[in-house]
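Q: Sequence in, structure out?
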Amino acid sequence: MANNSDMSNLKRLIDIGKNKGYITYEELNDDLP
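A: Exactly. Output:
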């Protein structure tokens, strides 16, 4: 199960994706374990 920091990172990535319309591999690799 994911902890709170993992969930907040995932929510931030989702927000970035919604705003820009895409997420880069760099953003994914920086935030996901």
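The chain has two helices and no strands.
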